[in-house]
Amino acid sequence: MFESITSDNDRGQVGIGTLIVFIAMVLVAAIAAGVLINTAGFLQTQSEATGEESTQQVTDRLQIVDIVGTAGNSAITQVDMTTTKSPGSGDIDLTEVTIELVATDAATLEHSTHNPTDEFTTTSVDGSGNIVTDDDAEDLHTISIDLGSISAIDGDGLSEGDSLEMRIITASGASTSIEIRAPDSLSGGAVSL
């Protein structure tokens, strides 16, 4: 039934073959574990980046504090919006903001440094530049739109009783929607909208 091993030279051959198979299995398992760990690290990094981008799309938006129009000859010719950033948002570069207007037609406005035709300009109340850094009353910026030069608006501006829809979109994709309605009678000067 059992063979007896008579030669001392044949004894270790069975053990070496088993050891080689065992080492090969350990190497394959180590390589597979390394691939799994690398993949898990990559997926974690990608999910963190996606989470940050999603958060920015929700929070990195401008908050409108006040809207004032300049009226003349029964039309609002300029709109000045005082803005700050919403609570919890990061710094917002106003030169990277776009504004979508819908009046009689639609237009996309860019900062005056990017587009000389359908444009808006920005002014910092405290002179700090075009980047909104704080979400308090000290860091206010004014976005000015000359309605007479916008291709989407007929005539010289926003006429009495007309309305205008705006969507202010930051570089991260967060947006603020507002509707501006001109009063039924304009007498000239500054008008709160």
TrEMBL record:
The keyword Coiled coil does not apply. It comes from the Archaea. Its main location: other. Keywords: Archaeal flagellum, Cell projection, Cilium, Flagellum, Membrane, Transmembrane, Transmembrane helix. InterPro entries: Flagellin/pilin_N_arc (IPR013373), Flagellin_arc-type (IPR002774). GO terms for cellular component: archaeal-type flagellum. One of its GO terms (molecular function) is structural molecule activity. The chain crosses the membrane at residues 12-37. GO terms for biological process: archaeal or bacterial-type flagellum-dependent cell motility. It is found in: Archaeal flagellum. NCBIfam families: arch_flag_Nterm. Flagellin is the subunit protein which polymerizes to form the filaments of archaeal flagella. Belongs to the archaeal flagellin family. This is Flagellin. It comes from Halopenitus persicus. The lineage of its organism: Archaea, Methanobacteriati, Methanobacteriota, Stenosarchaea group, Halobacteria.
